[in-house]
Amino acid sequence: KTTFMGIDMGSDEFSSGIGESLAKVEELLLAELSSGEDFLTEAATHLAKAGGKRFRPVFALLSSQFGPNPHASEVITASTVVELIHLATLYHDDVMDEAELRRGAVSANARWSNSVAILAGDFLFARASRLVSTLGPESVLIIADTFAELVTGQMRETIGNPSGTDPVDHYLRVVWEKTASLIAAAGRFGGMTSGATDDDIERLSRLGDAIGTAFQVSDDIIDISSQPGDSGKNPGTDLREGVHTLPVLYALTEQGPDADRLRELLLSASGERLPLTDDAEVAEALGLLNASAGMVRARETLAGYAERAYSELAQLPDNEAKKALTSLVSYTVERIG
Ligand code: FPP
Ligand code: MG
Ligand code: MG
């Protein structure tokens, strides 16, 4: 049996079908990234070769199982396009975040320079555009709109939430724009290219939205609740970067001495977010957060997105992809422990 992120991908016959499609996506991805001048190829293939879960193509391929033609070549093209767009944004994101590492490998900006990383990202976008043009104007429109959402989310995050507006609302909007929108587009593309009904295409898009948001929220919870060494990640990474995720935003609205102490640790006198540098302070903040009602609310929010995903799945026809997707949703809830 094939598993993806530890999730059962159905019977051998089905999962090897997905596996074969995924291998074709991988082949097309590397072919597109290696199709420029030699000096471009190394930088352009760098992040794809560094690994990654290929979550968006997997979701597009699973979504394609709801249409009559899951083996259409357009399904492979569409699945590759979403991964190319995702990878392009990561090159640019690492420049903006001045990240040294990506997927356990040195980032393109750290290895070469910001200019090389930005241009490599642009090259990926050019290759994605070229591929999506073969799918027709409707697909080009979807990718153009999704691209604008990604940029809007990144810009909204950069600017921060204006004073007097709800930080939770701001946070969830950024998550939708920056992450869920592309996963929703992956579901839409999988449905469209395999000839699914219009209703099912809309369901797959909403399913991608719910799964994408649930994944982000569960990541945020794990960054607070995990034990060091638990998942190969160190808890408190977001706090060290001064990033306030959903549980933190909820906890900061609470009353009482614990919430007061949390505000003292995480906010400056003028209310600016402070990155935590001291290990003892990180440990203290994590302790307060884990005991907070904010953490309970974040778990409830996650459960709400999982519920949305399940209700979209309930409307889709029964098949092996539906089983795999159902397991994927329960995994986002169960992995937080
Ligand atoms: C990672 O977030 C970033 C994204 C999911 C989207 C970034 C979007 C852009 C850079 C828009 C512009 C794109 C192009 C190609 C013009 P993160 O920094 O929170 O997470 P990380 O831990 O993966 O770095
Ligand atoms: Mg980043
Ligand atoms: Mg970023």
TrEMBL record:
Cofactor: Mg(2+)
Transcription as UniProt keyword: no
Functional pathway: Isoprenoid biosynthesis
Swiss-Prot/TrEMBL keywords: Magnesium, Metal-binding, Transferase
Pfam families in the record: polyprenyl_synt
Protein origin, superkingdom: Bacteria
CDD domains per the UniProt record, alphabetical: Trans_IPPS_HT
Family in the record: Belongs to the FPP/GGPP synthase family.
Name of the molecule in the record: Geranylgeranyl pyrophosphate synthase
